[in-house]
């Protein structure tokens, strides 16, 4: 059976992906998932036979998408696994920069070895699958599954006795090896690779650089929700550092800053003329509010609907599980036909001139 594997992406839409896809027009053929994250929505859309284009600014998310959405057939075989885990751990980029920052020195040396070995795999799809699996292992070993926790807290929570006394959970999985977690998830990830006979494609860019380049019937927008816990660079930037062997920089246009959130949304909506239908996920604890977003969207379309349902985000490490109402804005781009025929006319003029 085809099944989305355990990705455990903060802010994912796994539980409501079917509900969102149920709202898509039946005759839509192509979808652009502009903030694809862990690809839960893209995976459901691919399963339903849409041709899916994904994008995310984080490189690790490009690899998840390349492995599960663009890739239709490549899996990791035993010889690939032997290669990834061959040789001796050594002191490389992770050891030099992140020993006792996120992992113990010996663990950093293992990561350095696996990173070098993944580079030797014989296809880009295999590399992406391997990165997705190493990511899963890194996340499992990390208290709260994100990389904005300080070392003292990490050591404390990886102390199984302490964890048991304080939280009645040993969290032994934090102390199992990267290899253990990689192998434990291997079949699930391999089995998640499938072919929907479409030319799916993964991109890795700031969304503002791509909107004029890609065309699709639907664009799905699931940006970080401003005003909630949404620092994706803080959560996962470390994995990009591991992949690139470089200290990567926080990205601009990150939807964190409330002061520029409205401007950023306005700018985003003004660039969506290539898409006939826009679907935007948002919730009731974020900024701007539903009504502010509605009035912003009304500038661009006279056909905007909002539907809602309950959805609980589980953010480990926070005292309260956040309860919220999830909104789905459905916008028909009422200017779509006009813009396209204007463009076609322009093309004809340019060719005739
Ligand atoms: C709410 S998450 C998406 C979750 C995804 N729908 C899922 O189900 O896993 C938002 C994503 O937007 C990405 N992002 C933030 N700013 C971006 C930008 N300017 N361009 C592209 N992606 C961006 C983040 O890296 C993050 O993965």
Protein described:
With 353 residues, this protein is of the alpha/beta class. It has a single domain (14-338), classed as 3-Layer(aba) Sandwich (Rossmann fold). The chain contains 14 helices and 7 strands. It has a 7-stranded mixed sheet with strand order 3-2-1-4-5-7-6. Strand 6 (303-313) and strand 7 form a beta hairpin. Helix 3 crosses helix 7 (124-141). The longest helix is centred in the middle third of the chain and has 18 residues, at 124-141. The chain is globular. S-adenosylmethionine binds next to helix 2.
Shape: globular
Examine the coordinates and then state which fold CATH places here, giving the name of the CATH topology: Rossmann fold
Kindly report the average pLDDT value.
93
Structural class: alpha/beta
Number of domains: 1
Mind summarizing the main beta sheet? 7 strands, mixed
User: Secondary-structure element order, as H and E?
Assistant: HEHEHHHHHHHHEEHHEHEEH
Number of strands: 7
The CATH homologous superfamily is named Vaccinia Virus protein VP39
Number of helices: 14
Beta content: 5-15%
Radius of gyration from CA coordinates: 21 Å
Give the helix level as a range of percent: 40-55%
Q: What hetero molecules are in the model?
A: S-adenosylmethionine
Strand order of the largest sheet: 3-2-1-4-5-7-6
Mind telling me which CATH architecture this is? 3-Layer(aba) Sandwich
Distance between the termini: 56 Å
């Amino acid at each position: 059976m085809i099944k989305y594997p355990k990705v455990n992406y903060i802010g994912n839409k796994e539980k409501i992906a079917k509900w969102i896809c149920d709202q898509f027009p039946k005759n839509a053929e192509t979808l652009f998932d502009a903030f694809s994250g862990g690809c839960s929505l893209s995976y459901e859309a691919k399963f339903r036979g849409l041709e899916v284009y994904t994008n995310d600014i984080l490189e690790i998310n490009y690899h998840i998408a390349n492995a599960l959405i663009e890739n239709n057939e490549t899996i990791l075989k035993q010889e690939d696994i032997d290669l990834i885990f061959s040789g001796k751990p050594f002191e490389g980029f992770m050891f030099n920069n992140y020993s006792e920052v996120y992992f113990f020195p010996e663990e950093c040396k293992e990561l350095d070895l696996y990173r070098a070995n993944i580079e030797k795999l014989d296809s880009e799809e295999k590399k992406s699958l391997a990165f997705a699996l190493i990511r899963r292992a890194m996340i499992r070993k990390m208290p709260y599954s994100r990389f904005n926790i300080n070392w003292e807290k990490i050591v404390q929570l990886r102390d199984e006795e302490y964890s048991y006394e304080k939280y009645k959970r040993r969290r032994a999985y934090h102390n199992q090896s990267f290899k253990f977690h990689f192998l434990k998830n291997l079949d699930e990830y391999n089995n998640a690779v499938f072919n929907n006979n479409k030319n799916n494609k993964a991109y890795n860019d700031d969304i503002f650089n791509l909107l004029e380049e890609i065309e699709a019937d639907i664009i799905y927008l699931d940006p970080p929700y401003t005003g909630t816990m949404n620092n994706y660079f803080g959560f996962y930037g470390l994995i990009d550092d591991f992949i690139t062997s470089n200290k990567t920089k926080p990205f601009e246009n990150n939807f964190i800053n409330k002061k520029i959130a409205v401007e950023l949304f306005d700018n985003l909506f003004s660039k969506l003329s290539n898409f006939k239908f826009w679907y935007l996920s948002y919730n009731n604890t974020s900024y701007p509010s539903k009504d502010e977003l509605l009035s912003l969207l009304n500038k661009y379309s006279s056909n905007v609907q909002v539907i809602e349902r309950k959805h609980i985000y589980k953010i480990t490490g926070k005292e309260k599980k956040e309860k919220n109402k999830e909104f789905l804005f459905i916008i028909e781009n009422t200017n779509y036909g006009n813009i396209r025929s204007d463009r076609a006319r322009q093309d004809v003029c340019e060719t005739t001139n």
